[in-house]
Design brief:
By secondary structure, the protein is of the alpha+beta class. The strands form 4 sheets. Strands 6-7-8-3-9-10 form a 6-stranded mixed sheet, sandwiched between helices. A 5-stranded antiparallel sheet has the order 13-12-11-14-19. It has a 4-stranded antiparallel sheet with strand order 2-1-4-5, with helices on one face. A hairpin with a 2-residue loop joins strand 9 and strand 10. Helix 2 packs across helix 3, helix 2 packs parallel to helix 4 and helix 3 packs across helix 4.
Length: 354
């Protein structure tokens, strides 16, 4: 089941929560709306579910207009951030609730509940109440309740946000396993970039009610078309400068006394000589040894070193500001030391200053 938003907008008074959003989510796809708090991603999800009616635009399922179809007729299930479990009902009763509303035979209800609880690995907990469950177990109950009605589209509104860090990783792996097993079209909402990257087939990055960019995780991380995406997804370094030369696919940018070469894909508009630009590069692209003549050399004094197991996180004070670099854990780096590091020109992204 595909689902599509065509020019959807939603206002609450003078606030534009969703601004002309158009996206198409394919059958069986795990699609994520990613963005900061207040960017409109949850409102977008609620419009899909039929819990909000758009002021403009249409919602389509397999090409059929469902914009004004009531939620219970959409063949869509939603898992909320707070799980919304009935505290006075057992696990079995919570999962069976939607089936009973649909007036399914008792034997069919029991069969489906048993199957879905086994699927989410909660067998044996049918008689417990939500208060007797861990956060991860409650999340699974909410997911089981949504899956029990066999929806063709599953909507998930930050379902892992109430879990601790370790459990979040475990549950996102479980979510992906379930989604792939069922091959169900899934739309996910989160502000957590790592979560979105780990789960999604494609991601729509949102800001101020608009979809800024849509792409696969690797594409959005390595070759983002917009500065917002480049600086929202993952850690980054940002420099300002002016283009002084264009040589083929390479830009030469003057940043104070430093000249930096950038031969990576740039933003949506290619800069020209004289343009003011932002340069973006990832901390892991830095190395203390040059790999080619195209590498850019920067230097500065080490102001902080953090050991993170698989890497050292090093902050370097340069004449262009503080730069964050990741180095191998066995690197000999001490506070106050002056170091030189190198950034390949292919790893520096360039964006016009608007």
């Amino acid at each position: 089941m595909s689902i599509e938003l065509a020019g959807v907008s939603k206002r609450f008074g003078k606030v534009v929560a969703v601004d002309r959003v158009s996206v198409r989510i394919e059958k069986g796809e795990f699609f994520t709306f990613l963005g900061p708090s207040g960017c409109g991603k949850t409102t977008t999800l609620r419009i899909m579910a039929g819990l909000e009616t758009p002021d403009e635009g249409r919602v389509l399922m397999d090409g059929q207009d469902i914009t004004y179809l009531p939620p219970h007729k959409r063949d869509i299930a939603m898992v909320f951030q707070n799980y919304a479990l009935w505290p006075h009902m057992t696990v079995f009763e919570n999962v069976a609730y939607g089936l009973k509303v649909r007036k399914l035979p008792v034997d069919e209800v029991r069969r489906r509940v048993r199957e879905v609880l086994e699927f989410v690995r909660l067998e044996g907990l049918e008689g417990r109440y939500p208060a007797q469950l861990s956060g991860g177990q409650q999340q699974r109950v909410a997911l089981a309740r949504a899956l029990a009605v066999q929806p063709r589209v599953l909507l998930l509104d930050e379902p892992l946000s109430n879990l601790d860090a370790k459990l979040r990783v475990e549950m996102r792996e479980e979510l992906r396993r379930i989604q792939r097993k069922l091959d169900i079209t899934t739309v996910y909402v989160t502000h957590d970039q790592e979560e979105a990257m780990a789960l999604s087939d494609r991601i729509a990055v949102m800001n101020s009610g608009r979809v800024v960019e849509v792409g696969e995780p690797e594409e959005l991380y390595s070759r983002p078309r917009t500065l917002f995406t480049a600086t929202f997804i993952g850690r980054y370094n940002l420099l300002e400068g002016r283009v002084v030369q264009v040589i083929g696919n390479t830009l030469v940018v003057e940043c104070g006394s430093l000249r930096i070469r950038s031969s990576s894909p740039t933003g949506e508009v290619r800069p020209l000589p004289g343009d003011q630009v932002y340069l973006v590069f990832r901390p892991h692209n830095a190395s203390t040894n040059p790999t080619s003549t195209e590498d850019n050399e920067l230097s500065g004094r080490v102001s902080a070193v953090s050991y993170l197991g698989e890497r050292l996180e090093v902050k370097v004070e340069t004449e262009h500001g503080r730069i964050l670099v990741y180095l191998p854990p066995n690197s000999t780096i001490t506070l106050g030391r002056h170091i030189r590091f190198y950034i390949p020109s292919k790893d520096i992204l360039t964006y016009l200053r608007q």
